[in-house]
Amino acid sequence: MKSSRLLSILLLLQTRGRMTAAELAGELEVSVRTVYRDAEALAAAGVPLYGDAGHSGGYQLLAGYRTRLTGLSTGEAEALFLTGMPGPAAELGLGRALSAAQLKLRAALPPELRAQADRMRARFHLDAPGWYAEHEETPYLAQVADAVWQGRVVEVLYRRWKEPREVKRLLAPYGLVLKAGRWYLVAGPDGARTYRVDQILSVTETTETADLPEGFDLAAHWHRTQEDFHARLYPEEAEVRLSARAAERLTGAQARALAATGSPDPDLPGWTRATLPIESADHAEAQFLALGTEAEVLSPPALRTRIRTTLASMTTRYAQVY
Length: 322
Prior knowledge:
The protein is 46% helix and 22% strand.
């Protein structure tokens, strides 16, 4: 809608300052000509918007001009309150600031939107961690977050999975990520690496500045990290046939692979044949044995042989009478 787009232009210029027509068009996913028309409409409505021509030109609001939040749609007002996560904010030491910000935002909303936002907050609650995830203490989270915000190098004592278990690291913090209730620090200086904040045993601040690598994007980096992790987690594949009950028990990458490669099994009506990613032969053997008679591994032959050998051993053991 045009009215929503005009408000978006105002907020972009208010928060970012001068922007070219091409930059605005890219943000709004419209043509540059549409931006020109919208800028004319805003100026005609009395908005103190002016533009400069030339290579370094662009649109800019008159210094000191601020728009109010009365242009929020009902859905936008609801979504703003849905994004409030008091648990993580409190862990970062921002719980009180979040509450104050929500109070100010609520006061700025028109009565009808305020009622809708209150309804959203009363009926929806975000709880990111999984059911079986234990709460992990992160005593140095606030100190690490401060180093990220201030752009300061820190020396940490870090506990890792291999020997030596405890090592000292000089880290240039680039950003913090909350994933499934667990905090991760992305830091340099030798490339952007990932560290679990709950495994940090001590933090010592330094006076050295931590500069972000040119063009570094935390969200894009994390997305690539997740893709690389899943690629390393499932380096092998297995062809299997599954009953409907077994298929329902698959999750994550295997469930997605089943949806992508699954087809009706020609030999067993109601069963599905698919190629699934597996972590290793050991892990796959335990997984498919747990599915019992609801699954059968067809290949690779080595995995099928392992399972057959294990089943034969179990049959011999359980054939004994005590």
